[in-house]
């Protein structure tokens, strides 16, 4: 029989997440056409090392992450496995490669399907964000451990954003229909962190086109929260981003001497 006057047990973090094991899924199966012709984006080099290896190292740099699942271009799984074996990676982390799908969403789902039991926290990190600092990764994991079902690193916007009526043909003027209040907007990055069951449920339920995983959780209901993002976690999308990424790497090498 319970007695409300007796001291109640201290609230525990949700389902023991303080000790939960964390896996990272890296969708890397995109062609990256906006970068111009060449190898799939994830296999392009930065400072002589494939972008994907930078992204894998960024996840494995977090002591919380003990498994990294790389979702590779379907025709390139063997090549990605060979790449992982050829580069120095931490021994305490396991690396698995699975073939990706037609869309980013499909690729993430295939990565989730490959997760063994026992990993209750999942990070989803774009291979196209090779330079995310480990402090950002750790901040995302910590927020999920503290009980948030979905966490995104986010930054305020520098540009004012306009909503437009999209033009019928590229380059034609587009009527502006609204200017959202910039102070309420954030640009979100990856890794995005999730309670595994919540993310799996979202991937089973939400079928519409989305550009990130957190928006699937938003459609499902649970609250998504932000933690501070980092300017070096930018996405390498266009040729100029490659120049910036090379510059960031060069600065790190100067500072860290590695
Ligand atoms: O195209 P976008 O830049 O949004 O891609 C984000 C990430 O999703 C990239 O790392 C890309 O390799 C990955 N992706 C994927 N499978 C696809 C399309 C994109 O893994 N079919």
Structural class from helices and strands?
Answer: alpha/beta
CATH 4th-level superfamily: Spore Coat Polysaccharide Biosynthesis Protein SpsA, Chain A
Strand content: 15-25%
CATH class placement: Alpha Beta
Taken in chain order, the helices and strands follow as EEEHEHEHEHEEEEEHHEH
Poorly predicted segments: 1-12
Under the CATH scheme, which architecture would be assigned?
Alpha-Beta Complex
Principal-axis shape: globular
- Structurally, the number of domains stands at 1
Radius of gyration, taken over Cα atoms and rounded to an integer in Å: 20 Å
How widely separated are the two ends? 62 Å
Bound molecules: cytidine-5'-monophosphate
Describe the main β-sheet briefly: 8 strands, mixed
- Structure summary, number of beta strands: 12
CATH topology-level name: Spore Coat Polysaccharide Biosynthesis Protein SpsA, Chain A
Mean pLDDT: 91
What this model shows, in words?
The protein has seven helices and twelve strands. The protein has 258 residues and is α/β, with parallel strands linked by helices. Strand 2 and strand 3 form a beta hairpin. The model is unreliable at 1-12 (pLDDT under 50). The structure holds cytidine-5'-monophosphate (C5P). Cytidine-5'-monophosphate binds next to helix 3. Cytidine-5'-monophosphate (C5P) binds next to helix 3.
Quick take:
The chain has helices at residues 51-60, 77-86, 104-113, 134-145, 196-205, 214-220, 239-256, and strands at residues 21-27, 45-46, 49-50, 65-72, 94-99, 119-124, 150-156, 163-164, 176-178, 186-188, 192-195, 224-228.
């Amino acid at each position: 029989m319970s007695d409300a006057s007796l001291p109640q047990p201290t609230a525990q973090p949700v389902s023991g997440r303080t000790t939960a094991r964390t896996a990272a899924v890296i969708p890397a199966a995109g062609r990256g056409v906006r970068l111009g012709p060449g190898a799939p984006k994830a296999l392009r080099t930065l400072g002589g090392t494939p972008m994907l290896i930078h992204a894998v190292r960024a996840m494995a740099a977090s002591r919380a992450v003990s498994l990294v699942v790389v979702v590779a271009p379907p025709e390139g799984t063997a090549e990605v496995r060979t790449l992982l074996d050829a580069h120095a990676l931490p021994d305490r982390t396991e690396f698995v490669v699975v073939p990706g799908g037609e869309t980013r969403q499909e690729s993430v789902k295939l990565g989730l399907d490959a997760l063994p039991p026992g990993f209750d926290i999942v990070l989803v990190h774009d291979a196209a964000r090779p330079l995310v600092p480990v402090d950002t990764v750790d901040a995302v994991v910590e927020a999920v451990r503290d009980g948030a079902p979905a966490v995104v690193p986010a930054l305020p916007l520098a540009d004012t954003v306009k909503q437009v009526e999209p033009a019928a043909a590229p380059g034609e003027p587009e009527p502006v229909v609204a200017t959202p209040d910039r102070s309420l907007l954030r640009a979100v990055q990856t890794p995005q962190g999730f309670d595994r069951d919540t993310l799996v449920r979202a991937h089973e339920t939400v079928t519409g086109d989305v550009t990130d995983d957190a928006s699937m959780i938003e459609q499902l209901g649970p609250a998504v929260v932000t933690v501070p993002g980092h300017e070096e976690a930018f996405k390498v999308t266009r040729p100029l981003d490659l120049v910036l990424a090379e510059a960031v790497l060069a600065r790190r090498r100067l500072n860290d001497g590695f």
